[in-house]
Amino acid sequence: MKDKRITELLGIKFPIFQGAMTGVSDHRLAGAVSSAGGLGIIASSGLSAEELRAEIRAVRRMTSQPFAVNLMLMLKNCQELVEVIIEEKVPIITTGAGSPKKLMPLLKAAGIIVIPVIPSASIAKKMAAVGCDAVIVEGAESGGHIGKVSTLVLVQAALQAVTIPVIAAGGIATRAGVTGMIASGAAGVQCGTIFLASDECPISDSYKQKIVEANEVDTVVLGTAYNRPLRVLANYMTEQYFEREENNELPEELKSWVDQAFRAIETGDSDNGAMLAGQSVGLIHEIMSVESILNSLYDN
Which pTM was predicted? Predict the structure, then answer.
């Protein structure tokens, strides 16, 4: 029997969240996902308060369906972003990079559903205790910043630790993957990499083509030297990174170099840019519309 807690809680058709990918998940992608029945999520990292306000309003011009904003709690302008989220009556937020505990009274008074992204069952338990409505457990298969535990183990551990809905994230890009996670007890899933290969995703065609061409072993993890592991597609930039790491370059210099690589990908430079992607990249073989992706993942 399908667990309808998350679809009923959020008012969405599919129990599928679109991951908040920094520099990627803007109104164009989030609005398309929400319009098609999933939960579109705007990534607020790197945005000013007024830029976030503009993104929220742009999504609302695209759809009347529920959407969310992802809030990285260690951002210097976090409080300003929270004020915009409340003023604009955003219905749902996902959070990362810290605990929303101090913000919970403010968010709950505004009627906002709070769903943190977490890397362990022990943190899931803490998030349930502070009143979060659900948790997204993100496994090491994911693209972007990752934890240490695989998605399958993490989902089972979280289900043993909490009674609130658990959303599985990491390594999910097929109907079989979604079905398997829900059969294991997850209330829904969050997918990122597969939405990179969508018509509506605002990345370069060269980046999308790399996603389609890659297989499951074509990602690498950068950033372990400065305790910020980051999964990306292997390319010339990653080869250079590992050479620098082997030459004992200082952690802060490595981090600065990777940050520059993020900016390179914005220009479509798929050789020197950091292209976020999870291991599920090997399961993606064509570029499709967001609507087609959602229908391919779940039989509603």
Answer: 0.89
